[in-house]
Amino acid sequence: MSIDFAKHFCGEDGYCLDYNEAKIVILPVPYDGTSTWIKGADKGPEAIIEASGTLEMYDIETESDISQKGIYTLPPISENTSPELMALAVENEVNNQFKSNKFTVLLGGEHSVSIGAFKAYSEKYNDLSILQLDAHADLRQKYEGSEYNHACAMYKAQEYAHIVQVGIRSMCQEEKAFVKTSNMFFRHQIRNNSSWKKDVLKKLKKNVYLTIDLDVFDTSIMPSTGTPEPDGLLFNDVIELVKTVANKVNIVGFDIVELCPNKDNKAPDYLAAKLIYKILSIIFKNR
After folding, report:
1. Interacting residues of 144 by C-beta distance below 8 A, sequence separation 6+
2. CA atoms within 13 A on the CB side of 56
3. CA angle 245, 249, 253 (to 5 degrees)
4. Which InterPro entries match (predicted)?
5. Are residues 203 and 129 in contact, defined by beta-carbon separation less than 8 angstroms?
6. CATH 3.40.800.10 fits 5-284, yes or no
7. Percent of the chain with pLDDT over 70
8. Which terminal Cβ of the chain has fewer Cβ within 10 Å, N or C?
9. Domain boundary assignment for the chain
10. Is 179 left (phi over 0), alpha (psi -120 to 50) or beta?
11. What is the pTM of this model?
């Protein structure tokens, strides 16, 4: 039976045919059940995977080809269900990958899909920090009747683990009460602070789960999100932070969420795919 490589991260050049041989798995979760403005995050995983087929496998900076570790794309979790049940489905699938000793990359979908991963990783790893890169605090207790809304993702996260938030530049008055200022790096505070990456590192525990909402990036390079916010980070800001973190602590998994692809502008899709491959290259350089 022939394989449709367009449905697999890195396409024909990087796709591992044997699940058992792969060290890395890509878990697509095309869910958009709680988005509140621009819909389309359910199309994000497919767009990222399509764009990933144009990546060069050799990473210049790390002098490595991370696809040689084996990257296997799992079937998507795509049930049309409540955010609570979706979180449970993600939690169960992440736990399945733990049993097979896989490094899992979760592709959203909107940010509520990360909640299940937060719970699974918090139960597996002691001394876990969840490092959020995002334009929004996502600290609402409940939104539109659910504690599992994308606007509540980090409120739920802090039920499971220590959280550190970076790049935040939008939140409501209600969320202010739940901000832990010692672990919050607002965008305006880090803009002219050359040591902010090292300052973030100091707040992290030895195991880190990284959750990246793509609206952390400036809209000039990432307009394709459900809730775009100006004055964001640039690509190198995020990569340098990941390098700083990965050099000192153990990044145990990560997710990329909130891509709302635009058929007339593929550059954001490619940015998301490149970001994933670059992060994997950094993490696995010395593994």
Report:
1. 34, 36
2. 6
3. 80
4. Agmatinase-rel, Ureohydrolase, Ureohydrolase_dom_sf
5. yes
6. yes
7. 98
8. N
9. 5-284
10. beta
11. 0.96
